Recover the amino acids of this structure.
């Protein structure tokens, strides 16, 4: 799978969650959307979506423990560490439920949103959790094949949207996607199907995360986190200093310390 991720810019891993677990996560997601609204964090984003048929849920790690389990799932972390290395940060964790009639958002690359060109290496990636069967008709994520090789905006084809392909995966799968892949949400043209996806976004640890977890996570949630989660969320004092310090020491010909 890791070889496919590096070569193609993505890979699909089926059967990561069994059906009963998928149903449980989906139920918690719907409850999280309601909790988000009660907390004053809207679940509709006119700046991102062309209509109100997309439900977006932010701050998942704060809203339910099940999402704190998924973001560190062993099969997900194996792909993250394989592509980004051991020193990574959890940059964001969100959800997008495409209801029937939802439209497509703008074409973008997640890495291009946080890093200026040139994009020469994978410095970020997504783990996409499929909570429904994913296909073109219900708004599957659409991607530009081989676009993880694009290094600057002027290399993006003018007809990029006409070249897009849709991911297809059964519920319970994860899709690992290089952060340089240009993609967009698809339009849900079905009459009754919903398409729920979770997006775990990870980055190398010298990039500032999209979310300030110190501000988002309550003291109660932070108290439950172990040392690994605190490190991955950048909650410790050193934050992203570890890799830089080790690299500096090597370049100076010095040992640790």
């Amino acid at each position: 799978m890791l070889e496919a991720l590096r070569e193609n810019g993505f890979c699909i891993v089926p059967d990561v969650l069994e059906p009963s677990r998928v149903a449980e996560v989906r139920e918690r997601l719907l409850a999280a959307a309601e909790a988000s609204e009660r907390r004053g964090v809207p679940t509709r984003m006119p700046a991102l979506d062309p209509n109100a048929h997309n439900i977006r849920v932010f701050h998942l790690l704060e809203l339910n423990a099940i999402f704190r389990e998924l973001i560190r799932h062993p099969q997900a972390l194996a792909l993250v560490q394989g592509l980004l290395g051991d020193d990574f940060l959890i940059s964001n964790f969100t959800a997008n439920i495409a209801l029937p009639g939802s439209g497509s958002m703008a074409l973008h690359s997640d890495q291009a949103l946080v890093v200026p060109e040139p994009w020469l290496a994978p410095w970020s990636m997504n783990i996409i959790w499929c909570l429904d069967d994913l296909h073109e008709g219900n708004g599957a994520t659409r991607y530009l094949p081989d676009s993880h090789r694009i290094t600057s905006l002027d290399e993006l084809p003018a007809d990029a949207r006409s070249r897009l392909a849709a991911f297809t995966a059964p519920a319970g799968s994860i899709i690992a996607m290089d952060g340089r892949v240009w993609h967009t949400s698809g339009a849900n043209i079905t009459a009754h199907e919903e398409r729920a996806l979770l997006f775990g976004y990870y980055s190398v640890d010298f990039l500032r995360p999209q979310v300030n977890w110190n501000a988002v996570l309550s003291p109660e949630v932070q108290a439950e986190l172990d040392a690994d989660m605190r490190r991955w969320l950048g909650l410790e004092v050193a934050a992203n200093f570890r890799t830089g310090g080790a690299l500096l020491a090597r370049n100076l010909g010095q040992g640790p310390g």
